[in-house]
Amino acid sequence: MQKLIQVAAILICGITMLAAQDAQDASKAADAQTVHSANASKSDLTADLAKMHVLLGQMQRNVAFVSSGDTPLKHQFELEIEMWQVLLRDMERKLAAQQNAPTK
After folding, report:
1. By CB distance 3.0 to 4.6 Å, which of 8, 15, 44, 74 could disulfide with 66?
2. DSSP code of 1?
3. Distance of CA 45 to the CA centre of its chain
4. What is the rounded CA–CA span in Å between residue 14 and residue 8?
5. pLDDT, average across residues 3-21
6. 3-state DSSP call for residue 104?
7. Position 35 pLDDT exceeds 60
8. Angle made by CA atoms 8, 13, 14, in degrees to the nearest 5
9. What does the DSSP assignment read for 35-102?
10. Contact 81, 60 (CB under 8 A)
11. pLDDT at 61
12. Helix/strand/coil for 103
C-alpha cells in the first residue's frame, strides 16, 4: 500500500512538472510570436510609408497641372499635400522610435 502511495505521489509530481514545462514552453512560443509579429508589423509599416511617399510625389507633380494662379482647388490640393507630409513625418518618427526601442 505504501509503495502504491509513493508511485501515485511520483506520478502526480511528474505530471505537475510536465504541465508546468508545457506552460513555460507555450509562454516562450507566445513571446517569440509577439516579437515576430512586431518585426512583421515594422516591415509592413515601412513598406506602407514607402508607398505613401510615392503617392505624395505623384500628388505634388499633379498639382502643377492644376490651373495657374491661386485657385481654391489648387489651394485645397496644396493643403492636402502639406497634411500628408506632416502625417508621414509623424509616422516615420514613430517607426524610428519603435526600431530604437529595446525588444523583450
Report:
1. 74
2. -
3. 7
4. 10
5. 69
6. coil
7. no
8. 95
9. HHHHHHHHHHHHHHHHHHHHHHHHHHHHHTTSPSS--HHHHHHHHHHHHHHHHHHHHHHHHHHHHHSP
10. yes
11. 92
12. coil
Q: pLDDT tens-digit profile of 40-98?
A: 677 888 999 999 999 999 999 998 888 778 888 889 999 999 999 999 999 999 989 88
Beta-carbon contacts of residue 63 (< 8 Å; ≥ 6 apart) = 74, 77, 78, 81
pLDDT band at 30 (very low <50, low <70, confident <90, very high): low
- CB-based contacts of 81-87 (< 8 A; 24+ apart in sequence): 81/56, 84/52, 84/56, 84/59, 85/56
